[in-house]
Design goal:
Helix content: 25-40%
Mean pLDDT: 92
Oligomer: single chain
Largest sheet: 5 strands, antiparallel
Strand order of the largest sheet: 1-5-4-3-2
Length: 332
């Protein structure tokens, strides 16, 4: 149930949603927590399942502790909550929650850990995908049921390096969010109203350009309508998100992979993913979106899972150009 080191923790594997979680150790329940135990229906790797929810190693809403616990601070429809999840060796998951949204996150625990996912529907068609799938039997696709929570950091990641986006997320969450309930020093992300009220100079100081900040503000103003997408079929959910100017297929797919557990939400319009998929499956580092979709066609209905397994395999084309340069408009 603990983390297994199948391969070096490369940037590509990290992008595939992998977080190392230590082997669980006995731990006392913290004071004031509501608790729930859930018997996982099969192998479950917390690091692989919950890893996509972490936005960088210093995400103020996410933490892994040495006792094998994964902590997550979130803003639910019932209010702020902190969730602690530990996996026992017998396959039972022990969860504790604090805050106004404690009952909400505990009720959603099974889907957060992939209960709505159907890994048996996935059939590997390529040797590399088969090997990656075999090594990661505990991979489940999480479903948070929270759209804005996934959408805002995804918009921050548009057209910039991961490090820039993570820095912006940390600064804005700490400045406009609130301390999370419970014993950990975590933060709950800002409310939709707070996102809409961030002044232009603070977006600038956080390194967020006018285009991305305007997209987040527009999304925050229709947050209730966007949250309805969590209960929609994938095509309708994507259309709902993409009705907001500034949200395109890349952003909607990356959001719905997390909020809806969408197994077929393949990310198009990405700078690196087509080349990684092309290189891993056919040796073509210059593959574009059309070629990537053709290669993933055998996985129709499970294309997101296939792409994640390819990323987790860590096979990337040799570098032949400098990395995308990092910028910081907050210093201008």
């Amino acid at each position: 149930m603990g983390a297994r080191r199948f391969d070096p923790l490369s940037r590509t594997a990290t992008r595939g949603g992998r977080v190392d979680v230590p082997d669980p150790r006995p731990a006392r329940a913290a004071a004031g927590a509501k608790e729930r135990r859930w018997p996982a229906p099969g192998p479950l790797d917390l690091g692989l399942t919950l890893g996509p929810l972490r936005r960088g190693p210093a995400d103020p809403t996410f933490r892994v502790t040495p006792d094998g616990s994964v902590w997550r601070a979130t803003r639910t429809p019932a209010g702020p909550a902190t969730l602690r999840v530990r996996a026992a060796s017998d396959g039972t998951v022990h969860a504790e929650a604090w805050g106004e949204g404690a009952d909400w996150v505990l009720d959603g625990l099974p889907e957060l850990l992939g209960a709505a996912d159907d890994p048996a529907a996935f059939v590997p068609r390529h040797r590399l995908v088969h090997a990656s799938h075999r090594l990661r039997p505990g991979l489940r696709l999480t479903r948070t049921g929270l759209v804005l929570e996934s959408l805002v950091p995804t918009v921050l990641e548009q057209k910039v390096t991961s490090d820039e986006a993570y820095r912006s997320w940390r600064r804005l969450v700490r400045q406009y969010g609130e301390p999370a309930p419970g014993p950990q020093d975590l933060y709950v992300m800002p409310t939709a109203r707070a996102w809409a009220m961030v002044p232009s100079w603070d977006w600038h100081r956080a390194g967020v350009d006018a285009k991305r900040s305007a997209t987040i503000v527009r999304a925050a103003r229709v947050a209730d309508r966007l949250e309805e997408a969590a209960g929609m079929e994938l095509t309708l959910a994507a259309a709902r998100l993409e009705a907001v100017p500034g949200i395109g297929p890349w952003t909607s797919a990356e959001t719905l992979q997390r909020s809806n557990g969408a197994a077929d939400a393949v990310t198009t319009g990405d700078l690196h993913l087509p080349g990684i998929v092309g290189w891993a499956l056919t040796g073509n580092r210059d593959a574009d979106d059309a070629e990537m979709l053709e290669l993933l066609a055998p996985y129709e209905g499970q294309r997101h899972r296939a792409a994640r397994l390819i990323l987790l395999a860590g096979r990337t084309p040799p570098r032949r150009a400098p990395r995308m340069p990092r910028g910081d408009i907050g210093r201008l």
